[in-house]
Amino acid sequence: MITVLSGGVGAARLLRALSGEIDPGEITAVVNVGDDLVLHGLTICPDLDTITYTLAGLNNDQLGWGLAGETWRVMDELAELEGASWFRLGDRDLATHLYRSQRLSEGATKTDVARELCQRWGVRVSLLPVTDDEIATVFDTEIGALSFQEYFVRHRHDVVVRGITVQGVAESSPTIEVLRALEESSRIVIAPSNPLISIDPILQVPGVREILHARRDDVVAVSPLINGAALKGPADRLLVELGHEATCVGVADFYHEVMGTFIIDEVDAHHAAQIESRGVNVRVTTAIMAAPDDARRLARAVLA
Amino acid sequence: MITVLSGGVGAARLLRALSGEIDPGEITAVVNVGDDLVLHGLTICPDLDTITYTLAGLNNDQLGWGLAGETWRVMDELAELEGASWFRLGDRDLATHLYRSQRLSEGATKTDVARELCQRWGVRVSLLPVTDDEIATVFDTEIGALSFQEYFVRHRHDVVVRGITVQGVAESSPTIEVLRALEESSRIVIAPSNPLISIDPILQVPGVREILHARRDDVVAVSPLINGAALKGPADRLLVELGHEATCVGVADFYHEVMGTFIIDEVDAHHAAQIESRGVNVRVTTAIMAAPDDARRLARAVLA
């Protein structure tokens, strides 16, 4: 069994690639919920949904997010009402949020809902929100405090960030399922998600970092930076703004206490010695998953 | 200025007919919110929405509820997820509920939201929820306690009712706008809505019944029963189940302390003397609003 600490798109692609190499029933994803939001009364879990849709083969490849075959009737009507329509929720996608919100109001947990949605769509990877408590990643920016999605979607991550805090995380607990997965997996993988805003909120949930630290030799991380750039999102920019080096070396420094092995792209091979000097094993392969063959090669490197 | 105590469909039709006779800006509707519900995380106000849609000319005449040109993508997807889909929410209609829920979460009141939606759709009648506090009509039935919409929609009002209570109503307050409308109108109208489940929850909000009682001579009610039958809904059946007479006389007995004039249909003219013996003036006209001419005649009788 392997467990993958996961954000959204990058993690979803790695999980899909891993599912092609081993039985998906042997894979658990521990998923960030720091970017969850309540909008229009609906509880929305973007990372969980992105992974679920991708593993169900329902993801929208054109948009890069959301569901295939999506329609936008509700959003169009909401825009007519001059309602908040900056966070685009398609009609199919809305059904997910209505389902989750109703189940939560009936006393279900996010863990329950993730399991139910996976069952409906035939997803066999176990998706576990890292916690069922409410945590919220907040950005201290040049224009004031912003919630995750205000920063990421509304302002298209194009404002200067001075700091990031995860509200509620100190009082949160990992679920029992998460603790069991982290303790019983033969390998723990850190997906090529944003270290600061996807992975760090998971590590901050009390107990998680400690388990990874203790099991450091079994932890393999995949670099989200290739030649100093993120394939998607603001990881490179945020690393610089928050005083880190925007290269795979900077990411290695960020993770070195909790990982034993770091997988970097071939173009970054010249950084290997520097990373190994931090006491981290390095594997060099293709860390881009655009082509199926490359995704397969990366998955095999993660499992090797 | 006139003020109309209002439930859903019957009140909406009367308000539309009244709007054809006098300036809609002179009409205020005080609307029941005892049948409001929170479903899928969304706050839904069926009576307010029915009236708004009808006065905006957007109501769905085929269904008898909801919006014209409606589509059902979200509900179809929700049914695929085996989510709660017994309360049908169309895609256009959902935009209303998303708008309201978001505004409420931002600190707006139901009164604010009703005003905003009316502005967007050019509705000039003032729609006032009777209270901005939460109240909930609950049915004690042969199969246990049911919320309003569980009783009305899920079970199609086809279970025996032993009692009706309005939770929270004793601690609720009418809004200042409602009090002003009731005190300053030249006439107060009780729409031909269900007396027990649409009008009574309004009367139970502390202060409302007292104002009507004091202004009894200015209060005109329209009978919702014609020849002992409700045109729509379970008013006749509920009157019997709860020990009232299922005729316009039974309704007159229910209202006689708060109304000075009762408008009944021609087919019920033979009840006039019996009702007048309760100290209530009776006007006889067509109380059915199916044909535009009849609706106009009823509106004129209400205004006479």
SSE map:
Two copies of one chain form a homodimer.
Chain A: E1 2-6, H1 9-19, E2 27-31, E3 37-39, E4 42-44, H2 46-55, H3 73-80, H4 91-105, H5 110-121, E5 126-129, E6 136-141, E7 144-147, H6 148-154, E8 161-167, H7 176-184, E9 187-190, H8 195-204, H9 208-214, E10 219-222, E11 225-226, E12 229-230, H10 235-241, H11 248-255, E13 261-265, H12 272-276, E14 281-285, H13 292-303
Parallel strand pairs in A: 1-2, 1-9, 2-5, 9-10, 10-13, 13-14
Antiparallel strand pairs in A: 3-4, 6-7, 6-8, 11-12
Helix pairs in contact in A: 1-2, 1-13, 4-5
Structural summary, described in words:
2 copies of one chain form a homodimer. Chain A has 304 residues and is of the alpha/beta class. Chain A has one domain: Rossmann fold. The first copy, chain A, has 13 helices and 14 strands. The first copy, chain A, has a 7-stranded parallel sheet, sandwiched between helices. In chain A, strands 7-6-8 form a 3-stranded antiparallel sheet, covered by helices on one side. In chain A, helix 1 (9-19) links the parallel strand 1 and strand 2. In chain A, helix 4 (91-105) crosses helix 5. Chain A is globular and about 60 Å long. The two termini of chain A are 13 Å apart. The A-B interface holds A 38-43, 71, 73-75, 77-78, 80-84, 91-92, 94-99, 101-102, 104-105, 117, 120 and B 38-43, 71, 73-75, 77-78, 80-84, 91-92, 94-99, 101-105, 117, 120.
